[in-house]
Amino acid sequence: MGALVSQVWTARSSRAPRLHFAPDPAKVLVRSPGVTGSEAGEESNEALDEFIAARCPTLCREFSPPWWLFNGHLQTAYAVMGDFSKIDRVEYDRTLLRTLDGGTIGLDATPPINECELPEDTPIVIVLHGLTGGSHESYVRAILAPACTPVEQGGLGYRGIVVNFRGCAGVPLTSPQLYSAGHTDDIRVAVMHIANRYPRARLLGIGFSLGANVLTRYLAEEGTHSRLAAGCAVACPWDCVRNAAGLEDQWLHRTVYAKAMAQNLQRLLARHAEAIAKFPEHPLATILPEVLNNRSMSLTQFDDKVTCIAGGSSPPFPFPSAWDYYAWASSHEILVKIRVPFLALNADDDPIVQVLPIEAGGNPYVAFAVTEKGGHLGWFEKVQSTGEIRRWVRHPILEWLKATGEDLVVKDRQIKSLHIVDGFLKEVGRDDIGCKEVEGGGHVVGVEGEEGLLAGL
């Protein structure tokens, strides 16, 4: 079946990523890479596979993990247990946004204004983190550190903004609504705010794990109205039903991964117990003691008790069960609706994400790259020149960001206008969502993470 709807590149090395495209990849308008002077304005149409071949060479090269990180379990374990505090240091300026329902999300922008002031048209990388992560996560910093380093120092010179979900990374919980893999309105209002603040900047989205699922759903829902010019989904869970079943049905996965993720979520909720108690009539407050006292909870059990009732606005929340929530939140079936260049990156040996929709519904805008090794948010390799262990995946992601941030020509997008209503920024014609800046925030040091939570998930 896949051979009928996918065009697959076979590289010389079996360790190079497998690249999947639709039979007739979308044509994208591009500037010739590296062209300067009088020819800088030249534009041409390229098929998406040609665009990637010319600008993302790492996707055609071998990825070889160190001998001692030879499978997905070890790669994932190193992502969680490794010490990344001395590399990829990133500092941020935090802005807090209040949503119409009373919730709060945190936007962490880098480089901080006291370090340098970038031109208003500087491309912006908008990042969505994983399950209980934030701007401190090593996988986030591995991309933003080089992406936001000045060009003269070898970086891309971009601006980075991490959208920290409600209650994550020190963001206060100010409503009983949490976040989830399927709820997109928080990223929607965050992008509205960023677009309003930087109207001349190109916006590029990248999501990791749960955040990749949110990004995929957002881009699919927006279609031709997307304010993001391109997207990149890293270790996306895609079919939440089948991947959750994979975690539940295997002893190791259920005992290690499903419980570790549930424990992270329980610890995150415990930090906000006092805030949740301010909403005694909400089901979340009622169920909280039982959830916090369960020492053997799995991810599905947590989602059944918490996420399916508090993971987003009503409707569609609440859901009858975690499995109903998973069916709704999955992104594999709506992947076909994305209408901007989109790169998906997954590893075959990811113990958390075991089912991949490489056919992407035949969507010509999607390039799907699958590595043989890499685990979940790992992809660690040994840098031969220094002996350091770093993430290989930063190379293709940075190449993709540079290509879509500088070479891609974006025209004729159907972007809806924004306006202020009662102090809230809203889209014209949609009154149910909006945001405004509130007091708080400040300076954030990216290597100072959420103590007590397992990193890398």
Automatic annotation (TrEMBL):
GO molecular function: acetylesterase activity; monoacylglycerol lipase activity
Alphabetical GO biological process terms: medium-chain fatty acid biosynthetic process; medium-chain fatty acid catabolic process
Alphabetically ordered keywords of this record: Hydrolase
Keyword Zinc listed: no
Domain AB hydrolase-1 per the UniProt entry, residue ranges: 123-382
InterPro entries associated with the record: AB_hydrolase_1, AB_hydrolase_4_sf, AB_hydrolase_fold
Pfam families given in the database record: Abhydrolase_1
Family, similarity comment: Belongs to the AB hydrolase superfamily. AB hydrolase 4 family.
UniProt protein name: AB-hydrolase YheT
Organism the protein comes from: Daedalea quercina L-15889
